[in-house]
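Same chain as my last thread, 335 residues:
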Amino acid sequence: MPSKVHAAGASLAALLAAGPLQADQTLTVYTYDSFVSEWGPGPGIEEAFEARCGDCDLEFVALPGGVDILQRLRLEGEGTRADVVLGLDMNLMAEARALDLLAPHGADTGALDLPIDWDDDTFLPYDWGHFAFVYDTEQLAKPPGSFAELLEAPETVKVILQDPRTSVTGQGLMLWIKKLYGDRAPEVWARLNERVLAVTNGWSQAYFSLFMNGEAPMVLSYATSPAYHMAVEETERYQAAEFAEGHYLQVETAAMLRTTERPELARDFLAFILTPEFQRHIPLGNVMNPAMDLGDELPDVFDRLIAPESLSFTPEEVRAHRREWIREWLNASVR
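reply #2:
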């Protein structure tokens, strides 16, 4: 009898000892909902990373978008559950850095292949693309080739946009217009509003709920969006309009929290980002350009996409003026 008690006690002690160890192998990653959807890159990336690390558990926490990730970090502060955040784009970097919650990634960035030079020890790119207006060729035979043409288009040419306060695509359009028009941006917004059918909180509602149901011939999205339709749905129906003035660039990034209790596992995940095992899920999973050259693994449809000139502000410029530029948009929208 005493031996059984001793054995039971030993087993209990072993389980208690294993509990914290197992918990330490869970890596919590804040990201956005489309990344972890069944058609997004998240499930494949989770499977690949867990096979690589052996005894770890990659746990994604899905939020509506990058702006929401930033807001969650702001609210949680040093008490955040996140070990890694994935989904803060270059336009949110300066605001995220100012929270003083992030740590250097320590990853080798030699494999990066972006349209701009990248030198940042905290934010690690995992994909990139250009904001663009995607159009339905069955509703619009000839799309506008510039903002000027869009503003002069017939009243029947309606567009669906996203709110720059809640959506990174909406913010991207705000920055695109500001970059091109400067002090004239409020005037352009006022004229563009005559073409707007709806402004949604996020990209998914605008694209899938409205645009794909034929509510308007154009929607704010990405130059890479047609790749999914061409590769997966085998249709040329949806294309991106190329604007002569250039398109605003988005680079999406990942970063680790300095408060993480699993820094080695977090750095392993960040290093994993710039490997083919992660990147091969980006082109048709996230429908964006991979952050490294995939060679023959890049789907052929990416060769048929528009390749516009890149426009951008620095992250610091965006942080300094974002609220001011959002007020400009709001003022023009309520007129």
